């Protein structure tokens, strides 16, 4: 009995049990925010952290904006505009997001940065007065242009009828998106960024976005079939970046290859080393190769793809699994292509899906800025402190950038100040 407890196989079991326990604790600590992980904790992963900081900054900024305008400095034309920022908004029941969205886009910018932005806020209501922000002072003081419908009475009546009957909402959403895109296109800005009205932008989102767009221009010729790109995503959720079933054959192949490599290495050690001949019995090799290694592989996959193989900081190709349209930045000429495509056949459908269909049909390259520079905070119901199972989390809440909440207020401010200082 004592010999068995001190045998090489027994020591391998002791060592592996301790190692596996340690790695499991590390995996659990590292991946509880990863929605593709077996250790994902939905009761806290959707909690506001940096978003609370940004909301506080946004509300403080709005208090000043009620009395102090912060628009582009008066110029003779639009030639100095680098980015048209468009935000479309409708009146929501018991929720007001537009003001914090706009405030977070502007808070922290200096005047030089602000002068490079043409901010267009689109009140997408047939009767603009029903929107609570329409006649508020902060909107007048912050937006360069408050866009309203300029449509025929027939079209306005049609949209009014859709709203009253809650029908074909996707038709109006797509129309509004293209209407706002056209308004931004008409400014002559070389880039157009369209945001939903229920997001928060991080401090420094502008300089990161412009840097990402510059990288996209440089990398696209080598990365895509056309040498160009359709858009750069400013938000995506890790919800769809897990171990996707399409990659299952590859995962199986590499797992089997890893097991075979471990077995071959152990046999090699036993053949060519004295210590291997002493301790690596057939039973030990079998246990390590066919039990321990598969268990470690299971732990690896359970830890989650976002944790074990995160996207590198910068820009990454995201032709698949990118979701959703909370924030997309387009080169001007690609916005023109999309507008022409929309005008050629008035389309009805979810704008996210239709834009992806267009991209797939035309082999368009799509980039994503990593990490996301905006967060989606629009929710139909409160989180109740986050105490809910994942299956009970509404889809509106699951559109969530988990790394966004890890941002630090002081770190972002220092980065922003350093970038602005280097540019002057």
From TrEMBL:
> Keyword annotations for this protein?
Membrane, Transmembrane, Transmembrane helix
Q: Name one GO molecular function term.
A: glycosyltransferase activity
Q: Which CDD domains match?
A: PGAP4-like_fungal
For this chain's UniProt record, which GO biological process terms are given? Answer: GPI anchor biosynthetic process
InterPro entries found in the cross-reference section: PGAP4 (IPR029675)
Show the GO cellular component annotation of the record: Golgi membrane
Q: Which positions, given as ranges, span the membrane? A: 252-272, 284-302
Q: What is this protein called?
A: Integral membrane protein
Query: What organism, scientifically named, is this protein from?
Result: Extremus antarcticus
